[in-house]
Amino acid sequence: MNKASPFPQVVRKKHATMKHIDPDLIEICNDPYVGVRSSPKGKYDEKFSSLRPGQCLKCEPHESAPLATALRKWLQNNGKDTELEVRAMTRFSKDGRGRVWLLAKEQKLKRAA
Fold it and tell me: Among the four residues 39, 45, 58, 59, which has the most C-beta atoms within 10 Å?
């Protein structure tokens, strides 16, 4: 007596994009483990490193938000996010293009008691 299951049986798809590794192309070496991931330079690294506080990057309107996020991430990775901040504007009033500013963080004054 073979009862039909009330649960449908899942059929897994075979992935046509899976590539098999050729064992003849693998080699053994004695490179030491470094313990960190490599971090190659980003495509904006040169632009961001030459940008000074108070300057801005001019870009297309749809590029301002991703560019601002990339600049914030670059500041974090280089340890500069404590003294610098990023502000972005999608459409600048003069020409309608996007802007991303690098600004020095303002010191907050203590309130008098």
Answer: 59
